[in-house]
């Protein structure tokens, strides 16, 4: 008997121009376009195996070893149903194809980083789900077409269907058919862009992105200004900066947009605070680091950005990463040694320190644990279809390892 099974992995993305607000909450249609950098899935990824089998009695999904509920009409259900609908179209055109669309599926997924910790697990998760089903169903669909489906799982997930630098075009059609992801530039265009994620220890997220952005849409006057007068020009300018590999412009816009996103969160009634004192201290460090460079006649060397939580993501050309790790570790001592995937410190360990001319009074030194870990990664590629040896489902159609 044939085994109908496929495995795919997908990356995380972190936006430079933030998506914040929906004009349609069911279809997940945004109030503005957005743009992100896809991070390297060699470091952060979701891996998903999907199998269709006539013996399965219902659709099931395990996330990190735990059975998740697929609520009818919910986000997982919508994505799975849409993928089955596309498979059915293939079967209608090619009558010899097995009728996989009529079978139930078992789906098993694993994130190699903390789920729901503000590290965009929903983005890589839904992108991996859609990619594995597309491989299982042998759909002749482009990444942009698949992004239409991932978008209905979580808006930011649509951008994880591409590697490199990716725009989510908001579109204007009420049915959402033109609200999709497009590639602005592939990873190879600007592979020097690295990212340092500062995982800030914090209690559970207070306000989810989904509910927070809806409250902003309902109550913030500033959001209307952002949507109409700010984001369209920023999308143009940052796309040009990426094409020209102009880090100075890229960094300026990225930081401005992170700041404005947190300003509209604050402008929400009641106000939403995602950043904390640690986040703000990291902003002060990056600002001072850039000031030293600019005053010496140079350009911006780093850009911070924050999503709906206190974690910082610092984008920078590879050549600056060592200085930035040294700076962050000086202010935020680490309990564990820095994992050095690019061999920056050549095994010597991080000493901690700042560049010459740096005003050390811009932030206080925090206690161990204020920044829990530092993850060094870089711009990466889009979803990958993996081999049978990477499958997460065993021969019996159940997860191979139960957490
Ligand atoms: N591998 C996965 N496969 C399918 N769904 C996933 C996967 N990983 C995460 N999800 C879904 O995403 C949810 C977590 O999303 P949530 O937005 O709360 O956190 P986050 O994505 O880590 O943070 P943020 O989007 O604010 O950066 C999970 O509860 C689950 O429903
Ligand atoms: C701040 C953000 O990370 C918000 C992401 O929101 P989600 O994509 O998690 O929201 P839903 O569409 O409701 O699932 C900005 C961004 O990624 O563009």
Structure report:
With 403 residues, the chain is of the alpha+beta class. The chain folds into two domains: 4-190 and 385-390, Ribosomal Protein S5, domain 2, CATH 3.30.230; 193-378, GHMP kinase, C-terminal domain (Alpha-Beta Plaits, 2-Layer Sandwich). The chain contains eight helices and 16 strands. The chain has helices at 75-93, 121-136, 143-150, 209-219, 221-243, 247-266, 277-295, 321-331, and strands at 4-11, 13-17, 22-24, 29-30, 34-38, 45-53, 60-63, 66-68, 104-111, 165-169, 180-185, 193-200, 303-305, 312-317, 371-378, 384-386. Strands 8-7-9-6-1-16 form a six-stranded mixed beta sheet, covered by helices on one side. A four-stranded antiparallel beta sheet has the order 2-5-10-11. Strands 13-14-12-15 form a four-stranded antiparallel beta sheet. A hairpin with a 4-residue loop joins strand 3 (22-24) and strand 4 (29-30). Helix 1 (75-93) packs parallel to helix 2 (121-136), helix 2 (121-136) crosses helix 3 (143-150) and helix 5 packs antiparallel against helix 6 (247-266). The chain is globular and about 70 Å long. It starts with a strand and ends in a 17-residue tail after the last strand. The structure holds adenosine-5'-triphosphate and ligand DP6. Adenosine-5'-triphosphate is lined by residues 46, 63, 109, 111, 115-122, 125-126, 128-129, 208-209, 307-308. Adenosine-5'-triphosphate binds at residues 46, 63, 109, 111, 115-122, 125-126, 128-129, 208-209, 307-308. It holds the Pfam family MVD-like_N. It comes from Hydnomerulius pinastri MD-312. Keywords: ATP-binding, Lipid biosynthesis, Lipid metabolism, Lyase, Nucleotide-binding, Steroid biosynthesis, Steroid metabolism, Sterol biosynthesis, Sterol metabolism. GO terms for molecular function: ATP binding; diphosphomevalonate decarboxylase activity. This is Diphosphomevalonate decarboxylase.
């Amino acid at each position: 008997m044939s085994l109908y099974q496929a495995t795919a992995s997908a990356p995380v993305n972190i936006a430079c121009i933030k998506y914040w607000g929906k004009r349609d909450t069911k279809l997940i249609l945004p109030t503005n376009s957005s743009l992100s950098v896809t991070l390297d899935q060699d470091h952060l990824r979701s891996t998903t195996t999907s199998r269709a089998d006539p013996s399965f009695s219902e659709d099931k999904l395990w996330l990190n070893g735990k059975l998740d509920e697929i609520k009818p009409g919910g986000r997982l259900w919508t994505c799975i149903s849409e993928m089955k609908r596309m498979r059915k179209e293939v079967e209608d055109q090619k009558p010899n194809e097995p009728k996989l669309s009529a079978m139930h599926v078992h789906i098993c997924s694993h994130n190699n980083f903390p789920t729901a910790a503000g590290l965009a697990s929903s983005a890589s998760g839904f992108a991996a789900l859609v990619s594995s089903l597309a491989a299982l169903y042998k759909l002749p669909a482009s990444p942009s077409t698949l992004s239409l489906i991932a978008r209905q799982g979580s808006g930011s997930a649509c951008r994880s269907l591409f590697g490199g630098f990716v725009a989510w075009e908001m579109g204007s059609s009420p049915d959402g058919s033109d609200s999709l992801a497009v590639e602005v530039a592939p990873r190879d265009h600007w592979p020097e862009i690295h990212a340092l994620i500062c995982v800030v220890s914090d209690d559970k997220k207070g306000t989810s992105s989904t509910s927070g952005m809806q409250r902003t849409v309902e109550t913030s006057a500033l959001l209307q200004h952002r949507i109409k007068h700010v984001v369209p020009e920023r999308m143009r300018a940052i796309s040009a900066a990426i094409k020209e590999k102009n880090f100075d412009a890229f960094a300026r816009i990225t930081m401005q947009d992170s700041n404005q996103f947190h300003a509209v969160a604050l402008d929400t009634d009641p106000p939403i605070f995602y950043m904390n004192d640690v986040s703000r201290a990291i902003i002060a460090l990056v600002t001072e680091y850039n000031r030293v460079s600019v005053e010496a006649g140079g350009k911006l060397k780093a850009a911070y950005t924050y999503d709906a939580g206190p974690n910082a993501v610092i984008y920078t050309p590879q050549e600056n990463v060592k200085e930035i790790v040294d700076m962050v570790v000086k202010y935020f001592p680490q309990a564990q040694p820095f994992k050095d995937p690019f061999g920056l410190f050549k095994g010597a360990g991080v000493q901690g320190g700042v560049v010459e001319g740096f005003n050390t009074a811009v932030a206080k030194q925090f206690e161990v644990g204020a920044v829990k870990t530092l993850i060094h990664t870089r711009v990466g590629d889009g979803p990958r279809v993996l081999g049978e040896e990477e499958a997460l489902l065993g021969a019996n159609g159940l997860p191979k390892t139960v957490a």
